[in-house]
Amino acid sequence: YLQLKKHIIAPYDRRYRLWQTFLVVLVAYSAWASPFELAFKKVATGSLMPVDLIVDAFFAIDIVLTFFVAYLDKSTYLLVDDHKKIATRYVSNLWFFMDVASTLPFQFLYQIVTGRMHKGEVFGFLNLLRFWRLRRVSELFTRLEKDTRFSYFWTRYIKLICYEFLLPFPTSDSEKHYTYLNSIKMVTLLIVHTAGCFYFWLAAHYKVPDNTWIGSQVSDFKSRSIWLGYTYSMYWAIVTLTTVGYGDLHAENTGEKVFEIFYMLCNIGLTAYLIGNMTNLIVHSTMRTFIMRDSINKVLQFASKNRLPEGMREQMLAHTQLKFKTAELQQEQVLEDLPKAIRSSIAQHLFRSTVEKAYIFKNVSEDLIIQLVSEMKAEYYPPKVDIILQNEIPTEFYILVSGAVDVLTYKNGTEQFLSKLGAADMAGEIGVIFNIPQPFTVRTKRLSQVIRISHHHFKQLVQPSSEDGMTIISNLVQYL
Amino acid sequence: YLQLKKHIIAPYDRRYRLWQTFLVVLVAYSAWASPFELAFKKVATGSLMPVDLIVDAFFAIDIVLTFFVAYLDKSTYLLVDDHKKIATRYVSNLWFFMDVASTLPFQFLYQIVTGRMHKGEVFGFLNLLRFWRLRRVSELFTRLEKDTRFSYFWTRYIKLICYEFLLPFPTSDSEKHYTYLNSIKMVTLLIVHTAGCFYFWLAAHYKVPDNTWIGSQVSDFKSRSIWLGYTYSMYWAIVTLTTVGYGDLHAENTGEKVFEIFYMLCNIGLTAYLIGNMTNLIVHSTMRTFIMRDSINKVLQFASKNRLPEGMREQMLAHTQLKFKTAELQQEQVLEDLPKAIRSSIAQHLFRSTVEKAYIFKNVSEDLIIQLVSEMKAEYYPPKVDIILQNEIPTEFYILVSGAVDVLTYKNGTEQFLSKLGAADMAGEIGVIFNIPQPFTVRTKRLSQVIRISHHHFKQLVQPSSEDGMTIISNLVQYL
Amino acid sequence: YLQLKKHIIAPYDRRYRLWQTFLVVLVAYSAWASPFELAFKKVATGSLMPVDLIVDAFFAIDIVLTFFVAYLDKSTYLLVDDHKKIATRYVSNLWFFMDVASTLPFQFLYQIVTGRMHKGEVFGFLNLLRFWRLRRVSELFTRLEKDTRFSYFWTRYIKLICYEFLLPFPTSDSEKHYTYLNSIKMVTLLIVHTAGCFYFWLAAHYKVPDNTWIGSQVSDFKSRSIWLGYTYSMYWAIVTLTTVGYGDLHAENTGEKVFEIFYMLCNIGLTAYLIGNMTNLIVHSTMRTFIMRDSINKVLQFASKNRLPEGMREQMLAHTQLKFKTAELQQEQVLEDLPKAIRSSIAQHLFRSTVEKAYIFKNVSEDLIIQLVSEMKAEYYPPKVDIILQNEIPTEFYILVSGAVDVLTYKNGTEQFLSKLGAADMAGEIGVIFNIPQPFTVRTKRLSQVIRISHHHFKQLVQPSSEDGMTIISNLVQYL
Amino acid sequence: YLQLKKHIIAPYDRRYRLWQTFLVVLVAYSAWASPFELAFKKVATGSLMPVDLIVDAFFAIDIVLTFFVAYLDKSTYLLVDDHKKIATRYVSNLWFFMDVASTLPFQFLYQIVTGRMHKGEVFGFLNLLRFWRLRRVSELFTRLEKDTRFSYFWTRYIKLICYEFLLPFPTSDSEKHYTYLNSIKMVTLLIVHTAGCFYFWLAAHYKVPDNTWIGSQVSDFKSRSIWLGYTYSMYWAIVTLTTVGYGDLHAENTGEKVFEIFYMLCNIGLTAYLIGNMTNLIVHSTMRTFIMRDSINKVLQFASKNRLPEGMREQMLAHTQLKFKTAELQQEQVLEDLPKAIRSSIAQHLFRSTVEKAYIFKNVSEDLIIQLVSEMKAEYYPPKVDIILQNEIPTEFYILVSGAVDVLTYKNGTEQFLSKLGAADMAGEIGVIFNIPQPFTVRTKRLSQVIRISHHHFKQLVQPSSEDGMTIISNLVQYL
């Protein structure tokens, strides 16, 4: 990380990120409080006022703070830590104006300046400016989406809190999608809350209270508790959002009808968006299960179609299942996508010690081993599966990394046990070096990991250095 | 399978699995009965009490049994059959506490201890602890999802029972997804049932019965039959879940409104989840049909674009359709994903006898045949399709496994029939061995299966052993 | 096609298929009439009775006919035309019993036997046996789904009729999916119709008419017109299916509530199924558009990222767009999936005449041309795009099939026009044969189709026959 | 572009396209006004009449204009600019008749001819002919869908206007889908508007006003303002479309019930279509994010499974993230899909100057450089990642395009810094040319772009020209 000027904070600073995450909590409060205070005006000037002022203070601090935070230049990808440039960029931006406008406690200032409360609606609407703060949430989610590791912890945390709002997924894969679904859920709840509050405001300001959606049910609704009003509002908003539409509460006058039209239009989009995302997540999270089941079904079909004996079928099944358990295909793909140098150092790290222990490579030059190891890959074999088949053409030989295998030979019609091999032992090297059909069958005893070296590749590497070739031959002769 | 200590049961034991499956049925009863008894208290202390006690007894037995079941250690993948370890693991777990708490018949014990019935609600809520038992269901489904073979039978069984709740799918492929969809359906029904019962409980305990959702319709609902109450509850719950929302039954007081808000929020997720899963299954189960139709359409487009003659178009179509019928692509993929040794033994099993019967390989060494067979693949050809075209470059030759082909030659502008070949006969071998353009056209008479041997591969195998080469040439000369 | 015994019809017979398609129309009538007659009993014994009898007669004829239709044996894939076997198979099957039971006009027979009308409900329910006939529809659709060509015409026909029930799709690709969506739509309508009729039946047979869903609105509904009753039933059924649920008509008594519960449960599945299928079709039919747009966007991004000059960008764009227009990738895939012999004959058909006209191949042996042509593929080039670049390594040469190209050379810093080539002219052959950097740039004037012959492939084919090699060289020398 | 006859406009003419886009705005007005005027007849003959006449005039102009617009012949792909042919084609088409019929202001003509207003409904229905104009919209969208560049600007414009009707997507990828979703939204709004107006018309013409859906709520609805009637209509239409179905407004008589049945049936399809499209867009637009997250997760899994050290894991992660940032895979795919000549000229443009600057290629013939450059690809490496590993087999060497790398050697157990390389410097060339294991490790200091030249490819190109080979060797010797 770079050295910044004094009194300048890097945007990636951990403490600054924590501060921003803390602000997001305050944003959530603001988003909830603004429409609520519009609808229930007495709260705005009463119990919630001090809370609002404190929250506003925190955002004011953040505005000041922003003048001390370096920013990333989009074209040069460098952090700019010049005070002047930071200030110019922020102030010349619309954001600064909006940040200030959404932070000023207009009502409080008016009260202080004029010495009395304003009766009009203007301050309620000015408070809606605080919705501007929601941009922070979308910024947070954009950051989280890119940061895989962080999102993991965040997700677990959200999961614990919001569990009751969410359907438990049956597949464990989907844990990482909670964040995403939750953000949709939160947006939905915010829209419901805002719509409910505004609908109540419409009723509270209609000239004939009895001719409003709530007044036709509860005629004295203005003098009843805030709790009752809020419950009715939320009940209506959710009955409409979910399209249940009981009809006990519904638009009574033209203004309400027009508002409902827009609310319902918005809801179609929201519902379609929710279903689309849910489908997307389900499709994505069940993909692996489907691929696995398909593979196994194909193996079973193949076996039954060709009437393969039970033993062969079991070997095929065991192998297919193991492949999905060890995610072999995935691992190979990871390696293939990396540049050669990284691939080499991974292979050195994983296989060098095993290869050095193999009897055939004793006293061989370090160069050869490095070159031999650099493109190696490990394979898993399930128990009781053949690695080498007697009389097969020798195209590769194997070094055992872990597990155990049996060496068998088929003589006079019966299989005879010859020996047992363990870690760092080799199999099939005789066939490869002397270029004769494999003399033995090699079968795993339990889950084994082997390194495969192809005939072709081996030859290519040994040929240039005749000395190493001699060492290998002498090792082999000694062994036999 | 491993030998376990005395009095210890393996978790994979068939009898133990049957016992667990039986418990799942009891779990279903518990899940249904707990909210039902909460809502309709007289049942809980009346007719259902003995049933509850018997079910509790079974679960008590299971708790005891768990102390005798070995478990799989997650790190070593070994079964632990030590009595002490099993007990420690189970007792130190939250599960044990929950299992016991959900099994104790509190109401019955209270009755026995105090000698009289408790009037309060506490026991109804304590009974809800039995929902804990549902974990067994999710365990069962996790197991089923992984076990392809078992799930098949289970699915058929569920299908027969639950058919009426399910839409019959048009594609036969989807049979294996019934389990999954059913589990969602069951969860939905359970939520509906629980919500309905709890809604009734809310009404039954509200101070003004006439001001409740059911009381405003049926004022004496408390003294009416359980059947009526349950029907009303379920009717309301489903009218709301499906978002029909007639409005004849709806929340009348604030408490009911709050409950409905949460119920409806839960329903959005549920509906989206149901639609998402249905879409996923449909997308997956129609994929094969779409791929087939696309392939055929592409062939038709290609033919019409290039104005190919009718005969060629028919051959192309026949071949494409056959490929999907025999699932050739799938079979090849299955083989490719297997390790070499298994692939070899499958090929030996399938093709060795056919290759040995071919005249050209008479008296040839066994080694050569094994090596030749080890990478063979079979292909299907539809009737009236050319396998070899006269004058073509000879890149491979064929051995017929089944079916029949005609050998034709094109002379003086007309096609002349030469001979007919059957199983184990060869085609194209003269072109390959003498390296001359194919002298004949070979065309299938009916559905035929052939083995293809490539020129290159054949040469590579025969060259090292000059003896086998001589045998083959002499076989060929004899044949001609 | 095979020769069948006398008086035996092949199941693929065109006339028999037409008859079956005609029966499907009658099935549609039956499916509509059965629940309708149950609900409105006076119709069943009145105006619709003769129609029912005629329809029943047709199905009776079909039962007799089935004894004369050969069937396909599932294991041998052969048509069985033995009278006895056909009869045994049909009669021993449950289908025969159901076919007969669903065809017998019980009411009419009862009337004839007893001489008077029965007042009970039993015949209405017996008529529901006719739903059995719906199996024919699913059989028809299974057949249509597999038969790509037939489905096309059928689709257009359905489209004209059912257009009003269907949303016009914007993409032309989706025409082939109408059949499928329509079948779902039809099933939905049938369920709605059946549910509506049964709901009316419930009301008509309830002891207190005023306490039914329709009686509470129209108290004299039993004596009103069938039209009114049917409209109310369908209105209720659709208001519930679509989950609009106005609530003006809703369940009044327990029986109706229970019926609605099952109807609504069924509807959730139906809706999810409908949405799932619609999504599937949309995903499938927009796939090609998405792939095309993505490709073009990638080209644009690549160009802007690397700041390529305008001309290069235009060439890239033109090429990408042309590729999608000519569906080049699809065509190549079609060819790759076919066996070698078919591929060869297609290539001979398409390119042989062009290759024979190329000056370099004059007087060359027919064998060489056949072998050369057999693996050829055509490529399209948009106007003003370079095919060959001056000084490039010669890896392939080209024969023009259609279109026109300019030969240019870059000398003293300016491009100079040398000559113009047309159909059957060659480009790049000098570079390839003398193995020197391409001496000219070749650029298309308008949309051109070329055949590409690779250096490597050409050498391989010409080398064995020295005579042809000489002819080619002499042709070339003569040309220069 | 081609030269057309005088007074003939090309269909691609920019001014003509602008005119057509302007007409689409008028079409939108027509589509809105036609059903509105049917429902509220007094508007049709009042305030909207002059607007209608002006709009009609514009469409009349367009009819005349069409006679002067060339058209594209579908078979020859040529523009036809012959006056006669254009006229014949247009007039003989149904379109001409419909265009004229939808443009004639019947009501106005009748008024002028007869001198008085017509009281009947016939003109309202005749106005519905204007819906024919909607074909222009679908034509516009078809064009936009194909034209990627234009759609971009159009999209931004629509986005600004229609933002309030649309849910803001969280992913920036989806910007290009707005057009599409908007078109669906617009169709939905049009259906809602038309249905609402027609429903009002039904009520206004029913014999008993009190027995209509609106009359039962507002008994004097006919004499009330148009605003009230329109609000009620739209409110009903949207309450029904969204399936909220409060039930305050619902069908009262049979006619209205039948209309609602069809409206609701249409809505199911519309909703399913909307959800399907939304799902499709979401699946498509989140695909890239999912692929990226999956890749990163796989890398993390691989690292933790094989217990790789932290440093290696960081290198792997950095490389994977960079690959997605630079869209490397996409760029390679773009190049692969292009024909060789275009690929070559791109490579010349991008890399030639860098290669010429490399010390090893000084004074080398231009031909060699062109050939060397023609298949080059650039790769990005993140900071602190190994490009070459000491002792590795030399399979390729590198030229730096930008960035900086360190050359390191591992001696006596510690890494020693040797030198620093910048743009146009080479790495690994010594190993490749002398065919010895790489003598140094090369590691990036910051984001670097390199060109990779493979050993094999380099040899192949240099071998034929011994002169260039000598120059390269002497350059190398001089450098060392």
* Quantity of strands of chain A, as a count: 10
N-to-C SSE series of chain A? HHHEEHHHHHHHHHHHHHEEEEEEHEEHH
Largest interface: A-D, 62 and 67 residues
Oligomer classification: homotetramer
Report how far apart the termini of chain A are: 58 Å
Structural class by sheet pairing and helices of chain A? alpha+beta
How much of the sequence lies in strands of chain A comes to 5-15%
Count of helical stretches of chain A: 19
Low-confidence stretches of chain A: 148-153, 156-176
Mean pLDDT of chain A: 81
Spatial strand arrangement across the major sheet of chain A: 3-10-5-8
Q: How large is the radius of gyration of chain A?
A: 35 Å
Helical content class of chain A: 55-70%
Largest sheet of chain A: 4 strands, antiparallel
What sort of overall outline of chain A do the alpha carbons produce when their principal axes are compared?
elongated
Brief summary of the model shown:
Chain A has 480 residues and is α+β, with helices and mostly antiparallel strands. Chain A is 59% helix and 10% strand. Among the domains of chain A are: 1-146, no CATH class; 374-479, Jelly Rolls, CATH 2.60.120.10.
Q: How would you portray this structure in words?
A:
- The structure is a homotetramer of 480-residue chains.
- The first copy, chain A, is of the alpha+beta class.
- Among the domains of chain A are: 1-146, no CATH class; 374-479, Jelly Rolls (Sandwich), CATH 2.60.120.10.
- Chain A is built from 19 helices and ten strands.
- In chain A, a hairpin with a 2-residue loop joins strand 6 (405-411) and strand 7.
- Mean pLDDT of chain A is 81; it is low at 148-153 and 156-176.
- Chains in contact: A-B, A-C, A-D, B-C, B-D, C-D.
- The interface between A and D is large, with 62 and 67 residues.
